[in-house]
Amino acid sequence: MKYIIIGLGNYGHVLAEELSALGHEVIGADISESRVDAIKDKIATAFIIDATDEQALSVLPLNSVDIVIVAIGENFGASIRVAALLKQKKVPHIYARAIDAVHRSVLEAFSLEKILTPEEDAARSLVQVLDFGANMEAFRIDAEYYVVKFTVPEKFVGYFVNELNLDEEFHLKLIGLKRADKVTNCLGVSLMELHVKNELPADEKVHEGDELVCYGKYHDFQAFWKAI
């Protein structure tokens, strides 16, 4: 896919670099020469422009990419103006970053395809880690339901998958397992490498270091962690 990312601060820089590393074509734009210099060798193209200027913004191939992302966060006025100009130019797929509730409310008035809330999402993820007190990652489906990946608790090691009773006891659906295998790298150092087990036979035993991926309600995950 092709992306334009406007705003190459910390958030935009990481976004551009990661998308490019995954094989996507990324065009970056920022008013700061130093920010453009820092990313230009890692993405397809980078422009030094003031995206709040309509004429300057027209330099970008806005209608020949899949998604335009407004990653500007700290400059509220610039973010809003760029979003407005993109809508004016009838760019079909616009994502924009919001740094707080007011920023989000204003962006919502433009009926953008997606509003990104990285600070809010990061805070929520930290709360979940602190709440569970475990090595876990969570993806929020809606207000109630989550997909959560976590390292298998020690007390589960050695049990068969069908003995965990996650569904019956905690109303959590086990949807995946990542197996931890010990491998040796080119320097002779032993490392743990995870790979997905696509099938979960009933007689599959849980190993130390495995990761489970489950789906369910947040309060059910809380009950699960309290119980173990």
Write the layout of secondary structure elements.
Layout: E1 2-6, H1 10-21, E2 25-30, H2 33-39, E3 45-48, H3 54-57, E4 67-70, H4 76-88, E5 94-97, H5 101-108, E6 114-116, H6 118-132, E7 136-140, E8 145-151, H7 166-170, E9 173-184, E10 190-197, E11 211-217, H8 218-227
Parallel strand pairs: 1-2, 1-4, 2-3, 4-5, 5-6
Antiparallel strand pairs: 7-8, 8-11, 9-10, 9-11
What count of helical segments does DSSP give?
A: 8
Strand content: 25-35%
Report mean pLDDT, rounded to a whole number: 87
Secondary structure: number of strands: 11
The Cα radius of gyration reads 22 Å
CATH architectural label of the largest domain: 3-Layer(aba) Sandwich
* Structural class by sheet pairing and helices: alpha/beta
Helicity, in percent? 25-40%
Terminal-residue CA separation: 43 Å
Q: What is the count of structural domains?
A: 2
